[in-house]
Specification:
This protein has about 425 residues and is of the alpha/beta class. The protein has 13 helices and 15 strands.
């Protein structure tokens, strides 16, 4: 098939995954309305969860344990806060939640809460001092309803995790029980925090103009400093649970992915922009075009038939034209290669533009005229490593905010979840 024959496929692809500024502004306006509703308990999709944390002073000091429980890995860290925004990671241990070579998977419904937290405790035992009591901050990257800094009940799993016995329970109590069972009574869990909040805490520890934090990795979420949270006398970090936003400009492949997910109808924004799902959107799209005879090759890898066989790392390799890219048929014509890379690029750029639209809504809420500087602290592999992702976010913010975009600085807050957990533990101790 020549390039002219593939032209309709490229046009269709562009139509499916290109978002206009008009669409993004519409999304931002709807996001703003949901934020306001969520603060008063009536949102359809944004939980607007209080964190019971406020800005660090920058003078926090001490040694704290930090636990970072995300969608892919678990990390245990021992962190020393020096004050003046400085810190040192004294020790660190990490392990994946799933390891086929080690023959374990702590993400499925077959895993019990006891098994999961016993696994977590083995990591903590390797990094905490043998003697003395140490306070722990726990970054838990899933939506929780908090009533206090150390009381957070899991609302539901995201990122396709399904461990039994945790939803509806106080995660801090479950960890405390596991620590006692493991003989780690010298560890006192004092704070449980969302990873977007710990990312913002880490950035604000060194620069007080940081007032938005976001995760652009396996999952997606955003938090911000709300000056007037109902019922609170001080500014508070609010975990938006942005990934659950539902008024998104989805296409038929997004709908297919959502229908086959663990929780259809929920997490619509996350399913369109986070690392857990970008490869699957690409797989569904390319498989559909191939099955309809719109591409040149007639045979494709068997792995394409398996959901989630294509990862965001595969898309990164494809965008870089890396030898480590997807195993593609040896008969693949040049036009097909261009189609696959174009699909990857469009899906990645769309993700960045959706994130920028959500941030635009937050910025317009906390500073309608954008009259002062703002730092958006970002953690996650998409922003850090995915080719073109950070640049697409910057370009989208400029498109949506115009000249006022000069007030916005996007900064990578690498490993913010660990340091932020330590800062949360410090606030919980005082």
């Amino acid at each position: 098939m020549n390039s002219l024959g593939l032209f309709p496929a490229f046009v269709s692809l562009q139509t499916l995954f290109t978002l206009t500024a008009y669409q993004l502004n519409d999304m931002a306006a709807a996001f703003s309305q949901e934020m306001e509703s969520g603060l008063h308990g009536s949102s359809q999709s944004l939980a607007m969860l209080p964190s019971y944390l406020t800005c660090p002073t920058g003078r926090e000091q001490g040694i704290y344990a930090a636990l970072d429980f995300g969608g892919t890995n678990v990390r245990a860290m021992l962190i020393k806060l020096h004050g003046q925004g400085r810190f040192t990671v004294l020790a660190q241990r990490a392990a994946p939640l799933t390891d086929r070579l080690a023959c374990y998977d702590y993400t499925t419904s077959r895993t019990t809460v006891s098994e999961l937290f016993a696994f977590v405790c083995t990591l903590l035992a390797e990094i905490v001092p043998v003697h003395g009591t140490i306070t722990l901050g726990h970054t838990f990257s899933f939506p929780c309803r908090q009533t206090a800094l150390n009381d957070a009940r899991l609302l539901h799993w995201t990122k396709e995790l399904a461990v039994s016995g945790i939803v509806g329970h106080n995660v801090n109590d479950l960890l405390q029980k596991a620590l006692t069972t493991s003989g780690l009574t010298r560890i006192r869990p004092a704070a449980i925090v969302n990873d977007a909040v710990t990312t913002l805490l880490t950035a604000a520890y060194t620069d007080s103009t940081a007032d938005i934090g976001s995760i652009c990795g396996t999952g997606h979420n955003t938090c911000y400093l709300e000056p007037h949270f109902p019922g609170s006398s001080r500014p508070m970090y609010i975990n938006i649970e942005a990934g659950n936003f539902s008024a998104v400009p989805a296409n038929r492949f997004d709908d297919l992915l959502d229908a086959a997910s663990d929780r259809p109808g929920s997490g619509r924004l996350e399913k369109m922009c986070s690392g857990r799902y970008l490869g699957e959107i690409w797989r569904l799209t390319c498989l559909d075009f191939a099955q309809k005879g719109l591409l040149g090759a007639k045979q494709f890898p068997q792995q394409w038939q398996t959901p989630y066989a294509v990862t965001t790392q595969d898309l990164a390799a494809l965008l870089e034209a890396s030898p480590a890219a997807l195993v593609l048929p040896p008969t693949l014509v040049q036009q097909d290669q261009l189609f696959f890379r174009t699909a990857a690029s469009l899906i990645v750029v769309r993700s960045a533009r959706l994130v920028a639209a959500a941030w635009t809504a937050v910025l317009r809420r906390i500073d309608p005229e954008l009259s002062r500087p703002h730092i958006i602290a970002i953690d996650g592999s998409l922003y850090e490593k995915l080719p073109g992702y950070a640049a697409a976010i910057t370009a989208s913010l400029s498109e949506l905010l115009g000249k006022k975009a000069s007030q916005i600085s996007c900064r990578l807050a690498k490993d913010g979840s660990g340091v932020g957990a330590a800062l949360a533990a410090c606030q919980g101790e005082n």
